[in-house]
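Tip: read the tokens left to right.
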């Protein structure tokens, strides 16, 4: 009789372990993440985290996959071929969610947009764009939205005054000044957040450390980019960093006003119902947990 109490305690501990074990086993260590560009401004935070071992320190192995265009990236995400995605803008998310797709914005890499408008010899001013063609990645992509937003800001009707043509890639695109809309966001399925909450938190913690390096330490960030296989002429890479780094978020915080601006345009254009709201696509619960842990660890610079 005297040994029954310790035996019951051991049995209870074993039962608790067995109940907890499946939950721990569900967390993933090998992840696939889709990207839509090889540009330094969108890739550097991820590449810095990869090169400096931030993902590895979180116990994660990340396989990056390049897919051109937000809609194609979303297709890979919702099909389960990828676990996370870094895409330009939120239009594909609004439109996908409105069709019932399982999508959630979980972080913003940037809070502004910085594109450079390159003109030929006959196009030297914004006003001279009238009647000309402008290259974009493709219909429905973020570059299309950014071009239209820029043109409207400069009193040019994108539907009547210019012709938008899909050229693919990221070579020639729009705006000659900063727009207050997030250029790059991180997306996943709500299913992933619910099934793998610890994994989701860990990838965001590593990503935040990468973006901290990319935003606040130019020399080390560019070195990390090259170490991870990124390419580019040093002078151009350096000058580009000066342009885009101020627009990087410090901790992946979601730029809600900019996302709202994109949603308003999609509603106006009739792509989504006027009753659609940003809270249907934004889920920053795990992001806030990741930020809090990094802050407690002394690894988050504001």
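Filled-in amino acids:
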């Amino acid at each position: 009789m005297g040994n029954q109490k310790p035996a019951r305690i051991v049995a209870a501990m074993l039962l608790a372990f067995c109940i907890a074990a499946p939950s721990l086993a569900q967390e993933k260590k090998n992840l696939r993440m889709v990207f839509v560009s090889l540009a330094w401004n969108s890739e550097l935070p991820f590449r810095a985290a990869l090169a400096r071992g931030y993902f590895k320190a979180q116990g994660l192995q990340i396989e990056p996959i390049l897919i051109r265009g937000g809609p194609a990236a979303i297709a890979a995400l919702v099909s389960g071929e990828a676990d996370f995605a870094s895409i330009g803008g939120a239009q594909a998310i609004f439109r996908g969610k409105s069709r019932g797709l399982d999508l959630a914005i979980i972080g913003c890499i940037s809070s502004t947009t910085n594109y450079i408008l390159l003109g030929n010899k006959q196009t030297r001013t914004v006003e001279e764009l009238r009647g000309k063609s402008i290259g974009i990645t493709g219909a429905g992509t973020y570059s299309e939205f950014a071009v239209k937003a820029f043109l409207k800001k400069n009193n040019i009707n994108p539907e009547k005054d210019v012709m938008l043509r899909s050229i693919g890639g990221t070579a020639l695109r729009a705006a000659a000044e900063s727009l207050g809309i997030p250029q790059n966001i991180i997306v996943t399925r709500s299913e992933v957040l619910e099934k793998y909450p610890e994994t989701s938190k860990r990838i965001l913690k590593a990503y935040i450390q990468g973006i901290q390096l990319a935003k606040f330490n130019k020399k080390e960030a560019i070195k990390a980019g090259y170490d991870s296989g990124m390419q580019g002429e040093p002078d151009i890479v350096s000058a580009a960093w000066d342009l885009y780094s101020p627009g990087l978020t410090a901790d992946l915080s979601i730029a809600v006003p900019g996302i709202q601006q994109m949603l308003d345009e999609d509603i106006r254009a009739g792509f989504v119902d006027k009753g659609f709201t940003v809270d249907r696509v934004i889920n920053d619960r795990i992001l806030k947990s990741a930020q809090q842990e990094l802050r407690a660890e002394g690894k988050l610079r504001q």
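The radius of gyration is 22 Å. Residues 181 and 271 are 18 Å apart (CA to CA).
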